[in-house]
Amino acid sequence: MFVPHQPRTxxxxxxxxxxxxxxxxxxxxxxxxxxxxxxASLAPPMPLDDDEAEDADDASTTLLxxxxxxxxxxxxxxxxxxxxxxxxHMDPSWTVCELGCGPGLPSLTAAKxxxxxxxxxxxxxxxxxxxxxxxxxxxxxxDHGRGTGGNGEQRFVTRQFDLTSQQNQLPDADLYILxxxxxxxxxxxxxxxxxxxLLSRNRETQGADDVLSRVWVFAQSDRAQRESFLQxxxxxxxxxxxxxxxxxxxxxxxxxxxEELWLFDLDETMVExx
Length: 274
Hints:
Number of helices: 6
């Protein structure tokens, strides 16, 4: 099995500091060119030789910093599906924004696939630190915390964003990705509210030169709160017969380029890991 990097410790800036053990998680295990992210490990990394043993951080722990969300530190099946869809259907000219990114595998896949710009967002600071660590090691960000494109603009950035807040302003993007974010009714309702705001913006710019934003939402069929999100979207679309059909989950994982909303239904038993 190909592993792009070995387990390591990550010095944590959020919470009370310290360090945690993280492991690389590739999209495809046997592909040396596969994009990958970091996930929090349940066991500390084992030093590979005497030099690494001397350099190992004694403060490494399997415990997460206070306030960190364990769910935001793990790679879930939906993020793998989202990453595969991004590889196959993302336009490299797009700016991609992932909401509730967790370890950020879809964001890192978008960067690997040549997206013009990637914005990885989450409310969890530790998750954003793991995304940044993986982005730096894959050359998408500098070790100063930002990566630049050919014109000097920041190509990969992380940003703290709370889906449940009505005060946060979403950054501009051509594609927004939500992957298995429905951990509570509050998050599901907040996600629906932000998606509706984005789609309202689409309607305001129709007929102009601006490219319409697309929203791709990925959720496993056993996620109860996803139906709360769906009900919110159905009610919002209720007076719009033209787009009403979009407010439903589909097993068709080949989204149409100019559909404003695509709800991906997932069966985790069908997820490929190789």
